[in-house]
Design goal:
Length: 398
């Protein structure tokens, strides 16, 4: 049966973990995968999460099936994070939200539903994008192409090219947009640019799919929601995937959500019924724990405040590592301008390191980065940053 099965390629990012884990050097550093580590190099278990989990464990809840769409208290909390507590969109009942298995699960449910809704459409992802975007939408049966995004010369967004690219797309084209903290480049649009982009989507009748995997990691929960809120004001229909893997440090619990903005309450009910059908034939209904914990935190004012503070702590730690890495590269006499490190947002930086330089970092120093030159700043800490700065300085000087 399996004699002719070929070995599938590894995920370029998750595959790095395996190589890192197998490395026996004690000073090795994993700047590959996008995970937030604290200054001790550990994945934090947030205090707000601990408190919610303790209360949940003490209550010993029964483990019945959840509704297909997940926990209502969770889905409502997600909507408020995306659109604001007093959103008119929410008051009008235009949004449906379903709990999903992480941001990936939300993208998958959205992609499968879109394939039923718009079977002849194409999907456009940013150039470059998170590799799984392409794989997910291709797996749902869509042809996937790219729209212009990153400009290696400025280390920012080539907005003119982006606008021109989107301006050529046919009505009904699905465009996947990173709502904030673009992965892999760290280069985001500004508010005025988002406004223009919303206008283009409206004029060309594109179908926006916002991927919100890092809400709170750039400027804060509210500020980072500028894209979904501008789209909300436009009157357009669109999709949003949310992930709480990073913002709640709940990676393995698989907590995410898919929200779909429709024209009205009655339409939302019909769309929800179709999305539920997609879920039922995938995994029936989501697991209980992660969503219950996130809902408990978001719906309790004291825990919510604690989470806001802990999220700010994570955001500030990444910022501090950005400034520190830049300063340390300058101290080491690196001529190349690395000031973009402090301008890019979120966990990642597209460093401009070549594949050969990344290879040297791994071979000579045990420092793992993605071959595209993407590094995860959240893996730096006060103990490994000098070593990393030394190594980068060495490889860029030749
Ligand atoms: N979208 C982007 C842009 C991401 O970087 C990630 C990272 O994990 C995801 C989606 C998936 O999130 P999750 O881990 O919750 O599935
Ligand atoms: O880009 C990253 O590193 C994170 C984690 O298939 C990740 O988003 C990477 C690859 C993948 C799933 C998650």
């Amino acid at each position: 049966l399996f004699a002719a099965v070929e070995m599938a390629p590894r995920d370029p990012i998750l595959g790095l973990n395996e190589a890192y884990n197998a490395d026996t050097r004690s000073n090795k550093v994993n700047l590959g995968v996008g995970v937030f580590f604290d200054d001790d190099g550990k994945i934090p278990l947030l205090r707000a999460v601990q408190a919610a989990e303790k209360a949940r464990l003490a209550a010993m809840p029964a483990r019945g099936y959840q509704p297909i769409e997940g926990l209502a208290a969770y889905n409502q909390a997600v909507q408020k994070l995306l659109f604001g507590a007093d959103s008119q969109l929410l008051a009008a009942g235009r949004v449906l939200t379903v709990e999903a298995l992480g941001g990936t699960g939300a993208l998958k449910v959205g992609a499968d539903y879109l394939k039923r809704l718009l079977p002849g459409s194409k999907v456009y992802i940013s150039d470059p994008s998170w590799e799984n975007h392409r794989a997910l939408f291709e797996a749902a049966g869509f042809p996937v192409e790219t729209y212009p995004y990153y400009d290696a010369a400025t280390r920012g967004v080539n907005f003119a090219a982006l606008k021109a690219g989107l301006g050529e797309l046919p009505a009904g084209a699905i465009i996947v947009l990173h709502a904030c903290c673009h992965n892999p480049t760290g280069a985001d649009l500004g508010v005025a640019q988002w406004r223009e982009l919303v206008d283009i989507c409206a004029a060309r009748r594109l179908v926006p799919f916002l991927d919100m995997a890092y809400q709170g990691f750039a400027d804060g929960v509210e500020a980072d929601a500028v894209a979904p809120r501008l789209f909300a004001d436009s009157g357009l229909s669109f999709f949003v995937s949310s992930s709480f893997s990073k913002s709640f440090s709940l990676y393995g619990e698989r907590v995410g959500a898919l929200s779909i903005v429709t024209a009205g309450k009655e339409e939302a009910a019909r769309v929800l019924s179709q999305v539920k059908r997609v879920i039922r034939t995938n995994y029936s209904n989501p697991p209980t724990h992660g969503g219950a914990v996130v809902a408990a935190v978001l719906n309790d004012p004291a825990l919510r405040q604690q989470w806001d503070e802990e999220l700010a702590g994570m955001r500030e730690r990444i910022r501090a590592m950005r400034s520190s890495l830049l300063a340390k590269l300058q101290e080491r006499g690196v001529q190349q301008d690395f000031s973009f490190i402090t301008q890019q947002r979120g966990m990642f930086s597209y460093t401009g390191l070549t594949a050969a330089q990344v290879e040297r970092l791994k071979d000579e120093f045990g420092i793992y980065a993605v071959s595209t030159g993407r590094i995860c700043l959240a893996a730096l800490n006060t103990r490994n940053i000098d070593y990393v700065a030394d190594a980068i300085a060495t490889v860029v000087k030749g």
